[in-house]
Amino acid sequence: MSASESTLSKDANDSGLAAKDPAKRSRALLIVATIFVLAALTWFLLWYFVLSTRETTDNAYVGGNQVALSSQVPGTVVAILADDTQHVEAGQVLVKLDGTDADVRLRQTSSALAQAVREVRQQTDSVNGADATVAARQVDLRKAEADLTRHLPLVAAQAESPEVVQHMRDSVAQARAALDTAKAQASASRAAIEGTDIANNPSVLQARANFRAAWVAAQRNTIVAPVTGYVAQRSVQLGSSIAPGQQLMTIIPLHNLWIDANFKENQLRHIRIGQPVKITTDIYGGSVEYHGKVIGLGAGTGSVFSLLPAQNATGNWIKVVQRVPVRVALDNDELDKHPLRVGLSTDVTVDITNDKGPVLAAAAQQPPAETSVYDQVAAQADVEAQKIIRANLGASSN
């Protein structure tokens, strides 16, 4: 018998002995059972302490405001002062338009405002003159009445001709009519300026509004950045004739970004507003971890807001698991250290240990975005208008 055959014969004999030995068989079964129990216990502990306390998805992307910059007035582009990828500050000049037409209109309205102020000054002086005329006519009337009073006794004594007295009565009537005419003229002159000073006269206010509109239009030939951010999608070209509302470029602020994590509908059961979130991104190879919190859940699934939403009542509908966007706010300090870009893919893990928070977001305590760069334009327009008014008030301003 060869050596191999003897070895096989020995193994077969040992197996047979083991099969016939109940103790060895029990130990083998116990070991196998223990292994399965430990694996099940390990899986249960992993699920209970780790997997059941979080929801994860890799269907998540960085979101941010995309501010489309457009012109508010028509014009021809004469300068472009920022390009794609460049950083710009709020209020920085980005595009300039030819301002010839706007300057002409501004000069016209400036002259009209000055003329309106001078006309109201003239009307004020006319009222003063009309009041003086009324006073003079009152003196004339009193004189005529006094003359008539002195001559009436003479007529009774036949010392004065009745014709003379009649002429005096006619003079009194004429003086009274002249007084009434003067009062009417004074009232008409006073109606144009009554109740207001020169600066707040309706004619001046109308001219001031026209000047303000022309001044703002002239300033809008200089297009500024409404927010701080980075330029993207520049489409404006030098010499282009643009219309109001035409998009010129996009400004993307990279400071207040968020994550739109699209969770499956069966993952939303324990997701609540305020829960902590951990985020990793492919751009840093998973070595950088961001920390955020849930600030809201979408009001509908992604398919509902698609261009061609599914028609579930058409009869050919097939059920698929829907996804709902969950918005996660990011920490700006972490964004400053490790900047992100809009549209980047991320892996999101939501800690659902505490699921007692609200599902629906409350009313916003502050606006999501705002800018004050345009307020300065309106304020400066009022300052320029006031300068023109003061310059044309003359002595009446004292």
TrEMBL record:
Organism per entry: Dyella lipolytica
Protein location: Cell envelope
Cited InterPro entries: AaeA-lik-b-barrel (IPR058634), EmrA/FarA_HH (IPR058633), MFP (IPR050739)
Protein name listed in UniProt: Efflux RND transporter periplasmic adaptor subunit
Keywords (A to Z) from UniProt: Membrane, Transmembrane, Transmembrane helix
SUPFAM superfamilies: HlyD-like secretion proteins
Domain p-hydroxybenzoic acid efflux pump subunit AaeA-like beta-barrel intervals: 258-349
Transmembrane helix listed as a keyword: yes
Domain Multidrug export protein EmrA/FarA alpha-helical hairpin residues, every copy: 100-220
Alphabetical list of PANTHER family matching this protein: MEMBRANE FUSION SUBUNIT OF EMRAB-TOLC MULTIDRUG EFFLUX PUMP, MULTIDRUG EXPORT PROTEIN EMRA-RELATED
Membrane-spanning segments: 28-50
